Amino acid sequence: MDEQNIPIDINTNKLLDWLISRRHVNKEWHTNIIKVREKINNAIQDMPVHEGIIKLLSGQHINYFHCLKIVDILKETEADTKNLFGRYGSQRMKDWQDILQSYQKENLYLAESAQILMRNVSYEVPSLKKQVTKLEQTQVECEKKIKEYTKAENSIQSEFNSSCKQLGIEGKKIKKELVNMLEELPEIYKKAAETIAMVKPALELYSAFINFHSDQRKDEVLPLLKYLIKNGNTTTYEYTYGEKPVSIEEPPLKIEIDDSDEDKNSEEIDFGDDIDFGDVNTESNIDFAITPMSEGDIDWGTLNTIEDDFEIVDHVDLDINLEESGIVVEKSGLDGGIAKGNDAYSLLDNPSTQNLILNDLMELKAFLNMRLYEMSGDSDLLSMSQIDAPTLLQMQTVESLTSMNDCVTVSLNELLNKRTQHLHNVKHSARYVDILAASLKQKLNAVQRIKDSKQILEEKIREAQLEITKLQPTILTVIENTKVLQQNIEDDISKKYKGRPVNIVGGVNMM
Fold this sequence. Notes:
Elements lengths: L7 E4 L3 H7 L7 H15 L7 H7 L6 H14 L13 H14 L3 H60 L6 H8 L3 H12 L3 H14 L9 H9 L4 H6 L5 E3 L9 H9 L59 E2 L9 E3 L10 H25 L5 H5 L5 H4 L3 H19 L1 H11 L1 H67 L5 E4 L6
Parallel strand pairs: 1-5, 2-4
Antiparallel strand pairs: 3-4
Helix pairs in contact: 1-6, 2-5, 2-6, 4-5, 6-18, 8-16, 13-16, 17-18
């Protein structure tokens, strides 16, 4: 093959070393380039208005090949200053011609161009692409965390809606709505009393059993339950004194309905400290540290300090400090005096008597369960013990006992279902109302905090996209300029080797 056609392949990373080793450039070139850069900085301060020059000077490092183009443009703009000898009187032209001469000395321009090419290929373009990749990863992480936030938001909102539905309220003005629901209690207790009346056969059976096995009289067995079945859900006053009151004065509710505060809280929720998102590109877990955005978990406030599910409905002693009942007997009253305090409540409404009634029902249920267990066994001892028993005891079957047991269970459920217990506790404990309202508000606050966190993430996504939009054209411009520079270097080296083809391997074309 003709030597003239043998290509010269030069690795991009070794380009500058190759030029120095072939003595095309001086190894101390970097000390001389400083003066050239100073001349360029001074020269660009005084440039004619020309579209080509503006394009050359905008956003890129001026090198030797740019200077050649600038001189060509100045030949047009400074043509009026050209004298008879072909020289230009323009200081601009003199400055740039001097710059070209300085560049050409010891091929200084070639060393600088090689360094620019190596820097663009090895650092500049990869760095810009890495920034874009990092921003895209940020978008992916934020979108992932938004999905996790949305899932948590829907879950908490669902819990809130379920709790409100269970209570029969909308959840807008929680305390007020809870107090309004108390109007349903009389009807609830009326229905419960009618249901409890169905346990009369079971109570008669239990009374007969107790009377048969002990000296206790029938009327002494579960007297309160027996009274409720016979007389209905009367006032505690009537049960205690055996006569109806002239009037009933229930204690006023001790619930502070702070509607203004609720409205304010719904508009201006205190979200505590800001969420620390940390580095978006870390391990996912709504942790920015939203852990999955380390970064730390979302601060849910004191959400966990309050029962999320409303299992506080178990009937317990709420330590209610109510006024002792006071009875005022009116001389002209035919049916007694005025029922006040706890005596003004109905038997099922009064916390004390309701507890006694529940205890009676549970005692009755325990008796029926034991009888069912005994009758379902194979032992003849039960039959022997019932020989002298009353007919009522001997006539019972597993089916009849099961039916009675079901009636007792239904009666207990009427009083112990969550909604009834919520309303009962709301009426008799202001602290319970505060806890219940705070629990619901905590859920709303958590939902709002998640929404705010999602907005922050969405803003991060928008900012990342905006940055990507700015970087992509920059990358394309740098690559295009680098390609042009590489071609100029290849052509220049080729001239030094009598036109042999020169290939800079691993250059910008590989990017």
